[in-house]
């Protein structure tokens, strides 16, 4: 990069273009960060000072008091939300990643009659959004008394068509069939071959898909909102929707803190893994 | 020998697909069928969830006709389209512009890694939390945005955004745009990076300008990915729920009520009209399917046209050379 730039002479037009491009990019970066900075700062300030000066970049000292106000209304319980969201997201992620890899393995490693139609079906249903069939799903769960239960938010994760598709695309070049063959010669069962040889090879793809599965599960609002009506089973996005109600109307410090608490885990994941996430998004786009 | 081997292993193909198939049948296919069935019934109220009857034969499509004729449903469909278009056009434009900049070899911009991370960030944050956050930012009479506007001298007194139709629509479309342009940009950049670099080198040797290369090489080669972006964004847009629901509950005057908010309100508030909500879901399903196929066919069609044009151009070029 340094080498390249030595010989380059830029015309005034190109210079002007670069200034314009950087200005716009920096503006967009500020636009991305600004709402979250306001949230972070105001979560530590008391409501009167937020009211008199809503934009400040100086942290306040009211964090503890805001937390007390937030939890005193007997509605927003960060620990309950955190626990439920974690249970759902961790289990759903594990199921999605494991069973999608297994299904992809069935599609890549074996020759069977219905393989073609099965793969076509996966492609066809990949785009169908869950919200479109939510009424039938809700009625079904109500009938078997699974509302206010975390299972209907976890078990459907076993069938994730998009993840199967991604895993298949990754597996075809990454998994040499000779390895599978030699495991067979050594007398390993097919299931054991999958668990001990295929899974480790698929680790990078599984990690990427795990991040996206976790985030999607964590952020989900529609289906949890229709299924969960008891406070003890609320997830974080349902908790945040409670901040909309009349009870917190003017308690801005507490509202900002509540929002902060619901997005904190996602922020931690994002800043720890942003490199992989960006790479994963880029990969997802060139599916076809 | 080979044949018998692949035959004996075939059963594992079926065996390993069983968990997926079973989960899909129970949690996706059955609920889909169930939704369609409920659309033809009188399911209403909590009791209606377990005790419903099919509508009499002559009235079998009553839920569907009621929904299609309901002014609120029609309005919600129009709202959904407005909100999607208001967000998609600026989103794809900005994403394409940034893609052109970020992949330009002549003007390599620095800090691309940082910009990508920051531009993408809003996409990964819980949409529900973002809706509540923006509601707080646009608070009236004192809130960060109002304070910014008055300090900059853009307005004399605080604006109560959430009581006005177009400002509320604008804010919701802006949130969607703000959440998605980074994602679209990253997808497009990776698409451009996948284009054969020889094409650009050849164009450069022929003295093509940056904008010529963008329109003549980048855009045609990005078509599949643009189609993918368009379809996924459209499906996502037609399913918009979290932001309009939590930002202002579809208000003012139902002007930001999307079809999904409509379905939610039909089924889970008021008189719990499950059957009607199911009918609305089926209608949305059909609309999404038709639009996806239409977009797909449009692109296929222009594909063929372009191919023909390219062939003609090649023929002309060949003739010229001969002549």
Q: Could you describe the 3D structure shown?
A:
The complex is a heterodimer of chains A (288) and B (323). Chain A is mainly alpha-helical and 288 residues long. Chain A has two domains: 2-71, no CATH class; 77-240, MetI-like (MetI-like fold, Orthogonal Bundle). Helix content of chain A is 73%, strand content 0%. Chain A has helices spanning 2-7, 12-42, 47-52, 63-72, 78-109, 115-125, 134-143, 151-154, 161-174, 177-185, 190-219, 222-227, 236-242, 252-285. In chain B, helix 8 (165-193) runs antiparallel to helix 12 (242-248). Residues 1-7 of chain B have low confidence and may be disordered. Chain B has one domain: Orthogonal Bundle (MetI-like fold). Chain B contains 14 helices and no strands. In chain B, 76% of the residues lie in helices and 0% in strands. Chain B has helices at 2-38, 45-48, 62-69, 71-103, 112-124, 127-137, 144-151, 165-193, 197-205, 210-221, 223-238, 242-248, 259-268, 274-322.
């Amino acid at each position: 990069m340094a080498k390249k730039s030595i010989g380059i002479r830029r015309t005034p037009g190109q210079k002007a273009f670069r200034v314009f491009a950087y200005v716009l990019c920096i503006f967009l970066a500020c636009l991305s960060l600004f709402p979250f900075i306001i949230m972070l700062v105001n979560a530590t300030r008391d409501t009167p000072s937020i009211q008199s000066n809503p934009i400040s970049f100086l942290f306040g000292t009211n964090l503890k008091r805001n937390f007390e106000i937030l939890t005193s209304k007997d509605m927003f319980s960060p620990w309950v939300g955190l626990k439920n969201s974690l249970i759902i997201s961790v289990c759903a992620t594990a199921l999605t990643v494991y069973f999608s890899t297994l299904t992809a393995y069935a599609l890549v490693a074996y020759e069977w009659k219905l393989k073609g139609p099965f793969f076509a079906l996966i492609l066809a249903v990949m785009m169908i959004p869950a919200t479109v069939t939510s009424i039938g799903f809700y009625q079904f769960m109500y009938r078997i008394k699974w509302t206010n239960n975390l299972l209907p938010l976890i078990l459907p994760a076993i069938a994730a068509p998009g993840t199967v598709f991604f895993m298949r695309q990754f597996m075809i070049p990454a998994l040499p069939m000779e390895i599978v063959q030699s495991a067979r010669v050594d007398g390993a069962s097919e299931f054991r071959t999958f668990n001990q040889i295929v899974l480790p090879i698929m680790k990078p793809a599984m990690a990427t898909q795990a991040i996206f599965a976790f985030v999607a599960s964590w952020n989900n609002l529609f289906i949890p909102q229709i299924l969960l009506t008891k406070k003890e089973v609320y997830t974080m996005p349902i908790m945040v929707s409670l901040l909309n109600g009349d009870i917190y109307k003017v308690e801005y410090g507490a509202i900002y803190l509540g929002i902060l608490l619901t997005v904190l885990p996602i922020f931690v994941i994002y800043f720890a893994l942003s490199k992989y996430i960006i790479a994963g998004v880029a990969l997802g786009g060139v599916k076809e | 020998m080979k044949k018998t081997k692949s035959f004996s292993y075939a059963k594992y193909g079926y065996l390993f697909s069983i968990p997926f198939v079973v989960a899909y049948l129970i949690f996706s296919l059955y609920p889909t069928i169930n939704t369609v069935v409920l659309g033809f019934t009188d399911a209403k109220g909590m009791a209606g969830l377990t005790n419903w009857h099919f509508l009499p034969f002559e009235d079998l499509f009553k839920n569907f006709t009621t929904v299609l004729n309901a002014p609120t449903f029609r309005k919600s469909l129009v709202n959904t389209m407005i909100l999607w278009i208001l967000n998609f056009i600026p989103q794809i434009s900005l994403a394409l512009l940034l893609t052109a900049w970020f992949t330009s070899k002549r003007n390599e911009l620095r800090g691309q890694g940082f910009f990508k991370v920051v531009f993408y960030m809003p996409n990964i944050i819980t949409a529900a939390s973002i809706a509540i956050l923006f509601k707080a930012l646009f608070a009236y009479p004192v809130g960060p945005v109002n304070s910014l506007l008055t300090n900059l001298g853009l307005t004399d007194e605080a604006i109560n955004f959430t009581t006005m139709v177009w400002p509320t629509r604008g804010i919701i479309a802006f949130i969607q745009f703000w959440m998605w342009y980074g994602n679209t940009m990253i997808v497009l950049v990776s698409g451009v990076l996948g284009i054969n670099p020889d094409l650009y080198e050849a164009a450069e040797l022929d003295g093509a300008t940056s904008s010529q290369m963008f329109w003549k090489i980048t855009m045609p080669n990005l078509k599949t990915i643009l189609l993918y972006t368009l379809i996924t964004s459209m499906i996502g847009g037609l399913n918009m729920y979290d932001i309009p629901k939590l930002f202002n509950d579809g208000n003012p005057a139902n002007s930001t009520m999307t079809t999904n908010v409509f379905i939610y309100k039909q089924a889970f508030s008021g008189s719990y009209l499950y059957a009607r909500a199911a009918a609305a879901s089926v209608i949305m399903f059909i609309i999404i399917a038709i639009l996806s196929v239409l977009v797909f066919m449009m692109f296929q069609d222009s594909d063929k046209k372009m191919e023909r044009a390219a062939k003609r151009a090649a023929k002309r070029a060949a003739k010229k050379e001969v002549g």
